[in-house]
Amino acid sequence: MKDINVLITGGSKGLGLALGKELASRGARVVLVARGKDALDDAVSAIRATGGVAHGIAADVGEKEAIHRISGQAVALIGPIDVVIHDASTLGPTPLRPLLDTACEDLERVLAVNVVGPFRLTKVLAGPMVLRGRGTIVFISSDAAVSAYPTWGAYGASKAGADHLARILGAELQATGVRVLVIDPGEMDTEMHAAAMPDADRASLADPRAVARSIGARIEEARS
Question: Which one from 155, 162, 166, 182 is the annotated catalytic residue?
């Protein structure tokens, strides 16, 4: 991963932060995107403290107007993007609720962040990858994309949509040198999981750092 330019959404905490630290430790230059500036600044500082190259962009991938700013700033900071990791996602309101109790506006927000945002960002970044004949696009998925869990409807529907979006992108980009990966990291000990399942046994959950190491290896394999 030395000198590879990586953009990670949802990069200020959880798996996104773990991926930023892991890929920076492998020599990548990383740009982290997140809504909260304070947490983002802390994440960037943590990576730099270990000798990694990291930058932060405070933005919301669910907002259409933010997409070109994210891509433009990322390229200005580290150069053409070689790898984009779509990790940012939202559950919607918590505690989770049945679909018939879910407001239409809440469903729209989940779809905007989990599906439409990654689609827009991919549209901006994939073109230059195709022209260079190389690149990797990673969608972080969930088992909720394939299993019908009660009260997980908005999130599950969004992840199912993102999964199929990625599969179609992979088929369309097959001969271009651009790889599309869909990775389900499993249940992890993160703030998002705690918000969804506050009574879960944390000891049974995967450490995001271990998951990030596995994903880093997958990305290296895809690029080889």
Answer: 155
Is 155 a known active-site residue?
A: yes
Residues for the chain: how many in total? 224
Domain count, the chain: 1
Q: Report whether pLDDT(222) > 90.
A: no
DSSP state of 95: S
Cα separation of the two ends of the chain: 10
CB neighbours of 73 closer than 8 A, spacing ≥ 6? 31, 57
Tokens of 104: 């239409």
Summarize the confidence of residues 64-69 as an average pLDDT.
Answer: 96
* SS3 state at 3: coil
What is the domain range of residue 20? 5-223
Whole-model pTM over 0.90: yes
Is residue 183 within a helix (H) or strand (E), and if so which, with residue range? strand 178-183
pLDDT at residue 94, rounded to an integer:
93
Which region holds residue 166: left if phi is over 0, alpha if psi is between -120 and 50, else beta? alpha
Which residues lie below 8 Å from residue 170, measured CB to CB, with a gap of 6+?
Answer: 179, 180
Structure tokens, 2: 């030395």
CATH number (domain holding residue 137): 3.40.50.720
Helices 14-25, 208-223: axis angle to 10 degrees equals 50
